[in-house]
């Protein structure tokens, strides 16, 4: 914990919860930290192992947000592939990568909500919300340039997103073999 800051509790891998726990997260000020890409592998077995009632509240991203619970997303690399685009796709579609199977779509997020959880939500979870998580003057300016607009691209194309450049503290640290425009 950073000097002068109180505790900011979170539950990591809050993927399977009792519905009664969701308001308790809010009441206790607990952050729900999850890795949306897990849905893509777990959806193949979760309902059979958890049962339909418990499965309905697995990966309950929207239910958490609707209850006012902060979300923090990550990739869980090396357990899952490092790409955040797989998790973004899972969060906004709740479908397998082939687009043929859906998993409790009532808990899918908007693209803005999912991107917020990956950026500002994660910054908040680490007490860094005053210096990370968005592009504004005075912040660290860690960001990527991608080959498509993640707000408007067709959902399946999110899975094929390529990073064109990476900036850390405002300095370019990576460039793909393509010309930036």
Overview of this protein structure:
The protein has a domain at 10-134: Metal-dependent hydrolases (TIM Barrel, Alpha-Beta Barrel). The protein has helices at residues 21-28, 37-42, 46-50, 52-55, 61-66, 84-93, 111-125, 155-158, and strands at residues 10-12, 31-34, 71-73, 143-146, 163-168, 171-175. Helix content is 32%, strand content 14%. The chain has 8 helices and 6 strands; from the N terminus they run βαβααααβααβαββ. It is α/β, with parallel strands linked by helices. The model has no long low-confidence stretch (mean pLDDT 93).
Structural Rg: 17 Å
What is the name of the CATH architecture of the domain at 10-134? Alpha-Beta Barrel
CATH class group of the domain at 10-134: Alpha Beta
Described by strand count, sense and barrel closure, the largest sheet is: 3 strands, parallel
End-to-end Cα distance: 41 Å
Count the DSSP helices.
Answer: 8
User: Percent of residues in beta strands?
Assistant: 5-15%
* Widest sheet: strand ordering: 1-2-3
Average pLDDT, rounded to a whole number, is 93
Predict the CATH topology of the domain at 10-134: TIM Barrel
Which structural class is indicated by helix and strand composition?
A: alpha/beta
Say which CATH homologous superfamily of the domain at 10-134 is assigned: Metal-dependent hydrolases
Low-pLDDT ranges: none
Q: Please trace the helix and strand order, writing H or E for each element.
A: EHEHHHHEHHEHEE
Based on the structure, what is the oligomeric state of the protein chains? single chain
What sort of overall outline do the alpha carbons produce when their principal axes are compared? Answer: globular
The proportion of residues forming helix, as a percent range, comes to: 25-40%
**Using DSSP, what is the number of strands?**
6
């Amino acid at each position: 914990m950073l000097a002068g800051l109180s505790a900011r509790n979170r539950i990591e891998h809050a993927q399977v919860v009792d519905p009664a726990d969701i308001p308790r997260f809010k009441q206790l000020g607990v952050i729900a930290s999850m890795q949306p890409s897990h849905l893509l592998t777990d959806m193949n077995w979760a309902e059979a192992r958890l049962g339909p009632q418990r499965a309905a509240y697995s990966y309950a991203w929207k239910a958490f947000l609707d209850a006012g619970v902060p979300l923090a997303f990550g990739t869980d690399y090396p357990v899952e592939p490092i790409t955040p685009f797989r998790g973004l796709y899972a969060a906004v579609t709740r479908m397998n990568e082939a687009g043929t199977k859906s998993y409790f779509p009532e808990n899918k997020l908007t693209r803005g909500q999912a991107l917020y959880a990956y950026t500002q939500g994660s910054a908040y979870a680490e007490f860094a919300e005053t210096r990370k998580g968005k592009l504004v003057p005075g912040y660290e300016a860690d960001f990527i340039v991608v080959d498509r607009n993640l707000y408007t691209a067709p959902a399946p194309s999110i899975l094929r997103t390529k990073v064109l450049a990476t900036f850390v503290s405002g300095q370019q640290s990576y460039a793909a073999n393509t010309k930036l425009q």
